[in-house]
Design brief:
Layout (H helix, E strand, L loop, with lengths): L7 H8 L5 E8 L5 E8 L2 E2 L1 H10 L13 H14 L5 E5 L4 H10 L14 E5 L5 H11 L3 E5 L4 E5 L4 E2 L1
Parallel strand pairs: 1-4, 6-8
Antiparallel strand pairs: 1-2, 2-3, 4-5, 5-7, 6-7
Helix pairs in contact: 3-5
């Protein structure tokens, strides 16, 4: 195993490149709940904020709450910065319980049987004032995971799995 060593001046720049505060704003389209929260400060995740995020992104069909991967939250934070909009992310589907996912898969073969939603690593969103085609393009440009485009249902799926699109 090898390590990457940066010269002191360069490594200082790398360490300071992370934003001091990461915020996310959500509107759950099924429960009408809103949340605007700072979930990470100076590289430290806030347990209370993460619990609030887990709650708003819960399976709205069963009310089951599960941890949402911080990698997904960081991806959403980056996406939000690129969108540069005052509007919250409108959540169509965050976490899905295994039972909910199995039911959705039986009814719609477009739903993956091993969906990353079940692991808190995927979310389906739209943003007021942003065309879903534009949202898709920005998500694709990040090349940070999967991006699904659902123009008829007016949402975009983003996840932190392997880079792919559909």
């Amino acid at each position: 195993m090898s390590a990457i060593v940066f010269p002191p001046r360069l490594s200082a720049g790398v360490q300071n490149s992370a934003p001091p505060e990461k915020r996310l704003a959500f509107f759950n389209t099924h429960t009408c709940e809103r949340l605007d929260v700072c979930y990470c400060t100076d590289g430290r995740y806030d347990a209370r904020a993460l619990a609030e995020i887990n709650h708003i992104l819960r399976d709205h069909r069963t009310s089951e709450v599960s941890p949402i991967a911080t990698g997904l939250l960081d991806l959403l934070h980056t996406l939000s910065l690129r969108l540069d909009t005052p509007h919250p992310l409108h959540v169509i589907s965050g976490y899905r319980s295994p039972g909910t996912n199995a039911t959705l898969h039986r009814c719609n073969r477009g739903v993956a049987s091993q969906s990353l939603h079940v692991y808190g690593k995927a979310i389906d969103i739209r943003v007021p004032g942003i065309q879903t085609l534009e949202l898709r393009g920005i998500a694709l440009a990040l090349a940070s995971g999967g991006v699904g485009y659902y123009p008829k249902s007016d949402f975009v799926h983003v996840d932190i799995g392997r880079v792919r699109s559909w």
